[in-house]
Amino acid sequence: MKDIFGIEFVPISPGTFMMGSENGYDEQPVHQVTISEPFYMGKYQVTQAQWRAVMGNNPSRFEGCDQCPVEQVSWNDAQEFISRLNSRVDDEFRYGLPTEAQWEYACRAGTTGDYAGNLDEMAWYSGNSGSKTYPVGQKKPNAWGLYDMHGNIWEWCQDWYDSGYYAKSPGVDPRGPEGGSDRVHRGGGWGDDGRGCRSALRGNYSPGNRFDYLGFRFTRTPL
After folding, report:
1. Which residues, 6+ apart, have CB-to-CB distance to 87 below 8 Å?
2. In this structure, what CATH number is given to the domain that contains residue 210?
3. Which of 76, 141, 167, 186 is the most buried (most CB within 10 A)?
4. How far apart are CA 48 and CA 204, in angstroms?
5. Is residue 182 part of a domain?
């Protein structure tokens, strides 16, 4: 579906999956998570053109490519972008960053391995990127029709980061710890090797950090 701003979303149905992996200390334990409500996930990472249309500027290092993902945006910047969109819509739904659980559920798209498919076919990463970003949607999507969930740029999530959160997180709709110093980001980017683009890999930065490999996509959720 395409919304009134021309941003495309993919419907994600409720379901249960195994979150985490045995490959990283903060990815353990592997645990069952249920996403109890449907939501819409951005089909693509937010582009430079979309950012400029809402914010009136383009902070990206790799500028001059309207369909490339916007980068050098902090978690706080992403929240401002989303707030501006929410101020223009009615009360039937809201935009937001995905929770970490929503993000991994959507990334995996029913898979259980390190990636949702063949990494070279699905991702721009250090093995094929030439150290830059690319227009969104050029690689193959995952089974649910989402593009660039692996690679191109890292994506901010809503949650605070806690390396030990999985040992105590709820099994239904986890939303991260109550507070912290860093926010979660996911997916890997153009400068990461294959390990850095795994479905379960967790990253964390201060919400004010900006890097040329860090951007976002967002959700649309009925109220």
Report:
1. none
2. 3.90.1580.10
3. 186
4. 23
5. yes
pLDDT tens-digit readout, 45-91: 999 999 999 999 999 999 999 999 999 999 999 999 999 999 988 77
pTM: 0.97
d(CA 151, CA 133): 9
Spatial separation of the C-alpha atoms in residues 195 and 77, rounded to whole Å = 28
Domain membership of residue 86 as a residue range: 9-222
Residue 1 lies in a domain: no
CB distance 104 to 199 below 8 Å: yes
What are the residues facing 31 on neighbouring strands? 19
Tell me 109's DSSP state: T
In the block, which residue shows the tokens 């819409």?
A: 40
Contacts of 171 (CB under 8 A, 6+ apart): 31, 32, 33, 34
**5's tokens:** 């701003």
